[in-house]
Amino acid sequence: MDRIRSSTIGRSLFRSPDRATERDRAAGHWANFFLHIYPVKVRREELTFRYSAFLGVASLVLFGSLVVSGIYLMFFYVPSPASAYGDINTIQNDVAFGQYIRNVHRWSAHLMVLTVAAHMARVFYRGAYKSPREFNWVIGVVLLALTLLMSFTGYLLPWDQLAFWAVTVGTSMADFVPFVGDATRTVLLGGGDVGSATLLRFYVLHVAVLPTAITLVVTIHLWRWRKDSMLEQGGDQ
Amino acid sequence: MSRRERPSPQIVDGKRVLGIVPGTPAVGDRKVPASDDLVMTSPHLLVRHAVAAIFVLLIVLALALFFDAPLKDIADPTNTPNPEKAPWYFAALQELLALFHPQVAGVLVPTAILIGLVALPYIDRSPRMGSGTRKVAVTTFTVFLVLWIILTIIGFAFRGPNWDWVWPWEEWHGEL
After folding, report:
1. What ipTM goes with this model?
2. Which residue among A12, A15, A184, B113 has its CA within the 20 to 30 Å range from the CA of A82?
3. B-chain residues near A99 (CB < 8 A)
4. pTM for the whole structure
5. Which residue of B48, B65, B71 is the best one to mutate when testing the A interface, meaning the one whose CB has the most A CBs within 10 A?
6. E-strand stretches of chain B
């Protein structure tokens, strides 16, 4: 590997190919796009399972799994009441690995709600929301809300009895909110009841708006994590 | 000392050894690594994250192998199922709605939870981190967390037609 890195192509690829000293490795770390979301060094404590239970990583991995499996499902799904249910049937019975990919998507979604909530609890018990990380905790709360919205909008898409009535019950809770409750519900549903407008709106939220929002907010979350980590180490961040 | 006997400098693990002095180190026998010591992210943390990622993916791939995602009959607005259940992560909220006035359960509680969570780091300003040294915060959070988990389990598995109590081993109404 080191020989590949120090070849002409390797040098053009990795920019800091020498890894003899810790300083070289730090330079290589900074020069790597995928590693630059990490601090160069972490405290030894952060390597242990009991520190974080790796729940943040787990959430991110599940989000990745959801993006990949979700894109596959998008090829075979049209968000209209006339075709949605039939498309799910086709995915399950005729599309290659369709049922399996749908299962992966479903389980990743359930687990992501769990890991995000558990991540929040772990961060609380560790006291990691304290200064200077107050605002990153707030961003985490936003991410929990986005995850729930993501899961909820996806719940409607199969357009079966389970989906239809779960979303009907879920959105009817908005009725009790004073002043803005009715308006919120109407905007969300695209009318008074769950119908074709609702399906389209939930679909667009589910595949475009919310994933973009989550990606952006996660990026800020990780960026702040790195900055705070290096600040704590006495860096000049 | 002749020229042949003198050890030449050699590269050991990226560092050049200039000399080896016999005897014990001045500081102690061995450096005991402290939890605050810094280590390189690459590879120490990366390797653990990779293992965690593979572990999570294996769980998902295995679950997907053994449990199919549900698909009921096509949506029918004229046929309301009984019980009507929200997704499991809203089961606690739905259970609260059955127990209290909707203005309380549907508005006050969710708003309070959200504001409470956002405000938490600005209310709890003590610099203490360990969970043993901040009893009030830990107790409050734990009480709410346990209550929420209990309500979720009740709403998910212990409620049947007309939101009446059912034992999950007699009639199963939970839907994932």
Report:
1. 0.90
2. A184
3. 68-69
4. 0.88
5. B71
6. 10-12, 15-17, 38-40
